[in-house]
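Hi R.,

As promised on Friday, here is the backbone we talked about, encoded as structure tokens. Could you run it through your design pipeline when you get a chance and send me back a sequence?
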């Protein structure tokens, strides 16, 4: 698909944008990267995603695709000749979508609570967060990746949150690796892949950004 033109509207610290970056890297898709200011949203972003007005948006041959997991599925279907991300088996495919949805509805939401809560509410969010990570750790089992021997849909859905763990751990005063050592070893294994390492920012940079964000919103 040499004539394809792809542009990614994104923000560097977004784990949802990181998903799309990993998927594009896995497929070796050439694209233009357009960094967005989420405080002053560009005319292009508002044009391409008028419903949610959020990143990421993949603009492929002039047509926008929105929402990170939908974009990853789209990438898998359009550039299907390399590195399949979703299983071909219908049941395995359904399971992959289930766990990716779990990441969004449980992991992401609990991360937001750790971010914003204090006192007993923070302690409850931390416990729920670790419990959910342990469920993921159990699903991973002894496989190198959730997708088996190669990185796949669930891996792409989850691993971007890893670079935010340092910020959440510092805010919440806890240690994920102490509770879920196999899951953290898995995250580090994912980072050994070029498609992942070049798509994820440094956790310290993310933490510095998180500190500024908390001050801006008056959380600290």
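Update: got your reply. Pasting your designed sequence below so it's all in one thread:
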């Amino acid at each position: 698909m040499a004539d394809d033109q792809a542009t990614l509207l994104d923000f560097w610290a977004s784990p949802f944008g990181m998903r799309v970056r990993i998927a594009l890297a896995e497929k070796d898709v050439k694209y233009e990267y357009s960094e967005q200011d989420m405080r002053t949203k560009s005319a292009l972003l508002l044009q391409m995603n008028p419903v949610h007005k959020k990143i990421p948006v993949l603009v492929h041959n002039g047509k926008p695709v929105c929402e990170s997991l939908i974009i990853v599925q789209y990438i898998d279907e359009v550039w299907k000749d390399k590195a399949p991300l979703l299983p071909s088996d219908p049941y395995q495919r359904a399971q992959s979508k289930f766990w990716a949805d779990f990441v969004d509805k449980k992991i992401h939401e609990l991360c937001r609570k750790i971010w914003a809560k204090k006192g007993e509410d923070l302690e409850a969010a931390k416990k729920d967060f670790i419990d959910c990570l342990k469920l993921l750790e159990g699903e991973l089992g002894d496989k190198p990746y959730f997708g088996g021997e190669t990185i796949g849909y669930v891996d792409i859905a989850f691993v971007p949150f890893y670079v935010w763990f340092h910020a959440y751990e510092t805010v919440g005063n806890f240690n994920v690796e102490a509770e879920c050592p196999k899951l953290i070893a898995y995250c580090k294994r994912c980072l050994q892949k070029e498609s992942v390492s070049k798509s994820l920012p440094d956790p310290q940079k993310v933490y510095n950004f998180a500190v500024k964000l908390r001050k801006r919103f008056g959380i600290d």
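One thing I noticed while checking it: The chain is about 60% helix and 10% strand.

Thanks again,
M.
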